[in-house]
Amino acid sequence: MKQSRQIVAAIAIAAVFFSGGVIYGRGGISFDHADKLNSENTTLPADLDYSTAESVYDALKDNYDGKLTQTQLLDGVKAGLAQSTGDPYTEFFSASEAKTLNEQLTGTFSGIGAQLGKNAAGVIEIIAPITGSPAEKAGLKPGDLISKINGTTTSNLDVDIAVSKIRGESGTTVTLQIYRNGVPQDYTITRANISIPSVESKMLDGNIGYLRISQFTDDTTSGPGTAELARKAAQSFKDQGVKGVVLDMRSNPGGTVDSAISVSSLWVPQGKTVMVEKRGGQVVKTNTATGGNILNGIPTIVLIDEGSASASEITAGALKDNKVATTLGAKSYGKGSFQTVLNLSGDSELKVTIGRWYRPNGQNIDKQGIKPDQVVKQTDSGDAQLDAATAKLKS
């Protein structure tokens, strides 16, 4: 087994973007092999007895009306093992799926540009469209339910299968039937090549710095990751003598643990707790601020909403609990577990949940989210949340 990588993810792969990949990222604690972790499953046998599965294989081979391949069947067995955990964040990726997954980490892909998951009822829903993406331009919103893809029902459809049906080459179209407030409507969307800058910054009226983080990525050969881009923006704000900062992490589905810690460290003093990782209820690691707190002492408001998840929740929780910023907007998504990606044979991968993370105040936010200090509902016209944040900083 090759090197494994830890990630903190908003939702399952296919929570992902309709392009078919994820933007969760990797980082934080890194284990070379999953068996180095203390596991609650030591009573399981060293090897499974696959004789009963063999009978299913024989029945399929002899009776299935369609073409099957050995690779397809083996990938199905592996995917089934991951699904048997009942954990939506533990998933097997075939070689092609793993390739797509890793392509997403560069922030460039072809699709409609939205984050996809399942709600509590098991219905495929939109977590958040990417800013400037075809999905956003078409009018898709967080909480929209996808009932059909190109006329085919999504009932009982796995998220990764839905992703594969929605993704496609730039310039082609896909039609989604969307339920919003119980009313169906068809959206025909043209796919595009999408490049997502993880960090955007600018100055607002009143000498307020605006820092938008859309995802948390590590450095790649194609350029610096979120931590370095955010650090440069923070230093620019400091050099310009900003009076306040808005950190916008709305619709940010997550990313790497390391980049979340680094971004938090722009405000949180060195040595202060950013988040705690636990496995089986026992502390695995306490992650602390790494130093350089460039923006510490500068009034800061963090914007969050229903699409803010995992790594963005780590950052929001760290700034809130260390009292270096206040939060504003809507309650966040609520993703309190973290995963490792293990490279397997044949270029396939396994993403597996290896623990839970906790805020500095001791709370695990899974399925609860973070309630902002000031709840502000978004409006159909303008940006009420950003307006409220800037008004508060100016005052």
Overview of the molecule:
By secondary structure, this protein is an alpha+beta fold. The protein has 3 domains: 4-45 and 53-102, no CATH class; 108-194, PDZ domain (Pdz3 Domain); 197-336 and 358-394, 2-enoyl-CoA Hydratase, Chain A, domain 1. It has 9 helices and 20 strands. The chain has helices at 51-63, 70-83, 95-104, 134-138, 159-166, 226-239, 257-264, 311-321, 384-394, and strands spanning 4-7, 91-93, 108-111, 114-118, 124-129, 145-149, 152-153, 173-180, 183-190, 192-195, 199-204, 208-213, 244-248, 273-279, 282-288, 300-304, 326-329, 337-343, 349-358, 374-375. Mean pLDDT is 86; it is low at 1-6 and 9-35.
Kindly state the percentage of residues in helix.
Answer: 10-25%
Mean pLDDT: 86
CATH superfamily of the largest domain: 2-enoyl-CoA Hydratase, Chain A, domain 1
| Biggest beta-sheet profile | 6 strands, antiparallel
The radius of gyration is: 21 Å
The CATH class of the largest domain is identified as Alpha Beta
Domains, number:
3
Number of DSSP helical runs: 9
E-strand count: 20
Report low-confidence residues grouped into runs of 5 or more. Answer: 1-6, 9-35
What CATH calls the topology of the largest domain is 2-enoyl-CoA Hydratase, Chain A, domain 1
Order of SSEs: EHHEHEEEHEEHEEEEEHEHEEEHEEEEH
CATH hierarchy: architecture of the largest domain: Alpha-Beta Complex
Structural class: alpha+beta
For the termini, the CA-CA separation is 56 Å
General form: globular
β-strand amount:
25-35%
